[in-house]
Amino acid sequence: MNSPLKVAVLGCGSVGSQVVRLLGEQADDLAARVGAPVELVGVAVRRLDSPREVEVPAGLLTTDAAALVARDDVDVVIEVIGGIEPARSLILSALEHGASVVTANKALLAEDGATLFEAAEKAGRDLYYEAAVAGAIPILRPLRESLAGDKVTRVLGIVNGTTNFILDKMDTSGAGFGDALEEAQALGYAEADPTADVEGFDAAAKAAILASLAFHSRVTANDVHREGITEVSAGDVRSAREMDSVVKLLAIAELRTDDNGEEAVSVRVHPAMIPRSHPLASVREAYNAVFVESEAAGQLMFYGPGAGGSPTASAVLGDLVTVARNHRQGTRGVGESAYADRAVLPMGETRTRYHVAIDVDDKAGVLAAVALAFAEHGVSIQTVRQEGRGDDAQLVVVSHEATDAALAATVDHLRDMDIVREVTSVMRVEGTEE
Amino acid sequence: MNSPLKVAVLGCGSVGSQVVRLLGEQADDLAARVGAPVELVGVAVRRLDSPREVEVPAGLLTTDAAALVARDDVDVVIEVIGGIEPARSLILSALEHGASVVTANKALLAEDGATLFEAAEKAGRDLYYEAAVAGAIPILRPLRESLAGDKVTRVLGIVNGTTNFILDKMDTSGAGFGDALEEAQALGYAEADPTADVEGFDAAAKAAILASLAFHSRVTANDVHREGITEVSAGDVRSAREMDSVVKLLAIAELRTDDNGEEAVSVRVHPAMIPRSHPLASVREAYNAVFVESEAAGQLMFYGPGAGGSPTASAVLGDLVTVARNHRQGTRGVGESAYADRAVLPMGETRTRYHVAIDVDDKAGVLAAVALAFAEHGVSIQTVRQEGRGDDAQLVVVSHEATDAALAATVDHLRDMDIVREVTSVMRVEGTEE
């Protein structure tokens, strides 16, 4: 048998503990697949006496992560601490000391992936991170390798389980955001402080990672236009139902043409209405799914559990096997691919579609006045539905594609009109053809 | 720039012509992703003057495939001829002459993959074949690499578009098999001789490939229990509807325990009822999808177009980029993994569930007699539904899991009973928990 491949794990929380468990339980299979035994040589934790889900062999626990990653005999470092620091410094140190790295750290990759990729390149080591997006669902490897001979044009993802659970609950029960959030918290799908999920920060980090891979460019979390779901009302969800649609928080990365005819990347996270017939519409509860469109392959979808210790650990160990095999053979897998170096299109210039519901005075000429407001901003209307309701009426307008800036200006304009009592719902529409 | 990587293509039909087209159109991107220009040096065809979908540069066409694969300067051979011979000899010759190989040839891999894998191993070259199963859907790479740290327990696939189109049509329109087949033929979804599709041969080859990868064992097409859809009646489909289920032709590969407590592979292709709530139930028309269950990741699904020149070419070129990169670096990707060497469980010993619809005399004691017949063969009944219809009655029985042999014997027994007028529908039930 070949000499063992030595692995250090940073962090022993919900993911780390499952990684440690599987390293033990799957040892024989991992050895066969790597071509050498995989030996756990250290687990870095914050406190030695914390309760944890797995029993770590005595002597392997340490609070000195910096010393662990600097060991000369460590071949692969698995980073599942999360957050920017000390994760970044530890990964950089691991690479400098000759280890390859597997990480699940979406926040770090989306904020400062370039630093990590350059360090891996310089060290001649692998940096793999399948677990950073959509948990157990193999999506990064398919984008990076399976679709390497194709041209990806769009990625639409439900990549945050918490918000999908909340929106699904609102759709099925008619609940408002607040009640659905409370239920999600009670069931453990949302954290006590749900900001990172419900404000879209988590999805935005994943959108940046997906956009970078899909379009061979560097896209960071700061490039992502981000809107959360806290403003989504029961009325919005009802409006969607009336259009045979459903509201989802989507991470969107698209190839678009800018004003100069150059291909640019539009990358954004926001709630949107999608038709119930769209494959993403049937993604229920806390599941994740990523829908990919490419020129030759057409439409693909990848579906599965987007979070959880055990599913995320599956993705980590898949990367570990690849990285370990490469490490043994002295080779590297695919590194960063940013050659296309495409610009990010500002949100205002991105062409989208709006669904707008408006309470208006029920009198003659209202529809004409509203249509004129759209026209003044160069926004073409696809459909309009008018419903009288006693004194007032409701207009529901769905636009054709226009720049987001023109659509936003149209909505501002509507809000200023005397005949408009209230703009009750504004939401983008995705997943339909023009 | 690095010196070009030289590629030969065998076959210029619907897939080959799209490969040639994309090699031209995506040349810049392919060069950037491989790290060297990709140069097409020859296209082997049966006849030089056949009409084809793509213009092949003058001088590249040849009818001498054997000479093309034996050229010393060819780095990668793409085989999209299909069939056993001459494809096998050409692939073996290519490997012997130092080329790596990308193929879409499911029939050959399922019949004699071992010979090819061993030749690739001996030559130190890659043999990649993502396009052989489910067209553009990345499924082999996820099974081979992304899930390499996990234990796959079951693969359920809709891997034949023709049969899915026919069954979907029968479900939505109530048509019988013959009419649905005619429509599929008229629309180009089925061939004039539909045997390979409707009798399950195509799906069985793919099931063998999926089972080999999922369970790290050698499984051939001969190991696959195969039943096609020609016997599926409008009544079966109606019966499924009444159970809120749908009939699909499934390729199934499962890890099961044999009588000695050893893990063995059950691999089979047959029509089955699955609940409409199952993710595979919503796979419509000629689309494909593969549902994977594993211990740590849980349930994953991969969905997309399962055939067609351009989608299949996308999968071929994804492999080409990986193989080309490895070839340049003098390394290899993951070779065959058959270390687990699991036995294939005979169909008779495989535990399945049956849905049986029986026309019986409408008199007292019938249900008891039928229940006794199930009990005599050790088959436990999960549900039974009885419907009187004038003189006779219909019983619909769904069993718990039992060996397929016991279930088949039960159905034979029922057919021999005096009170049984006809066994009108027998179908396996999948995608539900016991």
Automatic annotation (TrEMBL), chains A, B:
Signal peptide from the UniProt entry: none
Catalytic residues (UniProt): K206
Name of the protein in its database record: Homoserine dehydrogenase
UniProt-listed PROSITE patterns: ACT, HOMOSER_DHGENASE
Residues engaged in binding NADPH: K106
Pathway of action: Amino-acid biosynthesis; L-methionine biosynthesis via de novo pathway; L-homoserine from L-aspartate: step 3/3; Amino-acid biosynthesis; L-threonine biosynthesis; L-threonine from L-aspartate: step 3/5
EC number: 1.1.1.3
Organism: Nocardioides kongjuensis
PANTHER family, alphabetized: HOMOSERINE DEHYDROGENASE
Domain ACT: 355-428
Binding-site positions, L-homoserine: E191
Catalytic activity: L-homoserine + NAD(+) = L-aspartate 4-semialdehyde + NADH + H(+); L-homoserine + NADP(+) = L-aspartate 4-semialdehyde + NADPH + H(+)
Role of this protein: Catalyzes the conversion of L-aspartate-beta-semialdehyde (L-Asa) to L-homoserine (L-Hse), the third step in the biosynthesis of threonine and methionine from aspartate.
Entry's family note: Belongs to the homoserine dehydrogenase family.
Cofactor: a metal cation
Keyword Cell membrane: no
Gene Ontology BP, a term: methionine biosynthetic process
GO MF terms, alphabetically ordered: homoserine dehydrogenase activity; metal ion binding; NADP binding
Uppermost EC category: oxidoreductase
Record's keyword terms, sorted: Amino-acid biosynthesis, Metal-binding, Methionine biosynthesis, NAD, NADP, Oxidoreductase, Sodium, Threonine biosynthesis
